[in-house]
Amino acid sequence: DIVMTQSPDSLAVSLGERATINCKSSRSVLYTSNNKNYLAWYQQKPGQPPKLLISWASTREFGVPDRFSGSGSGTDFTLSISSLQAEDVAVYYCHQYYTTPSTFGQGTKVEI
Amino acid sequence: QVQLVQSGTEVKKPGASLKVSCKASGFTFSGYYMHWVRQAPGQGLEWMGWINPNSGGTNSAQKFQGRVTMTRDTSISTAYMELNSLRSDDTAVYYCARPRNAYDDNDAFDIWGQGTVVTVS
């Protein structure tokens, strides 16, 4: 199984400042035939299901604010929130869908 | 609108069985794999498996093989996840989740059910 490891486990950032979350996979999730990284990022608020923010490592979903961005390739990925807003307080998960079983990082809690 | 609506809260005794339903609306049910993901209290997300609603074929995580059964009823656009021989560490919120693209079992999940809270005690 591909193990997804996020860092840090928690992060406190001032309003308007940048938040950066890292995700490392134990094997590459880059599919060379289509040059796509099978990596997604989700946001989960208490009592809610996860919400898909980014797929293919860097493609923002429709309606997701552009302060959220994803980068990286192969085994190392980053989710950045350029200017943290109060509504961004949540737990963030990375997810590889390159192979079965699909696996998630342990989550990173973002606080103000 | 596109949505997945799951069945309600369950309280089960150890050794019992659980069956959670997930009713789809707003999209062609048979065109999308349906995945099941669970989340223990205060913990992360754990993928359990998927069902291909078109063929009925399934694939589950090794951890759950022999204990989980995924089925569907295409006439009512509903997927089911049954978990047997429940233990206390099966206490979790169980989600169904739909991939973004039809006919694709390797994709991110853009539609999630609201979750079904299951307590085994």
Gist of the model:
The complex is a heterodimer of chains A (112) and B (121). Chain A is mostly beta strands and 112 residues long.
Average pLDDT number of chain B: 96
**Helix-strand topology string of chain B:** EEEEEEEEEEE
How large is the radius of gyration of chain B?
13 Å
Structural class, judged by helices and strands of chain B? mainly beta
The major beta sheet of chain A can be summarized as: 7 strands, mixed
Helix content of chain B: under 10%
What is the number of helices of chain B? 0
Distance between the termini of chain B: 36 Å
Show unreliable segments of chain B. Answer: none
Bin the strand percentage of chain A: over 45%
| DSSP E strands of chain A, number | 13
How would a crystallographer describe the biggest sheet of chain B?
Answer: 7 strands, mixed
What global shape of chain A is seen? globular
Average pLDDT value of chain A? 98
Overview of this protein structure:
By secondary structure, chain A is mostly beta strands. Helix content of chain A is 0%, strand content 50%. Chain A has strands at 4-7, 10-12, 19-25, 30-31, 36-37, 39-44, 51-55, 59-60, 68-73, 76-81, 90-96, 103-104, 108-111. In chain A, strands 2, 6, 7, 8, 11, 12 and 13 form a seven-stranded mixed β-sheet that branches. A four-stranded antiparallel β-sheet of chain A has the order 1-3-10-9, with no helix packed on it. A two-stranded antiparallel ribbon of chain A has the order 4-5. Chain B is mainly β. Chain B contains no helices and eleven strands. Chain B has strands at residues 3-6, 10-12, 18-25, 34-39, 45-51, 58-60, 68-73, 78-83, 92-99, 109-112, 116-120. Chains A and B meet through strand 7 and strand 12 of A and strand 5 and strand 10 of B.
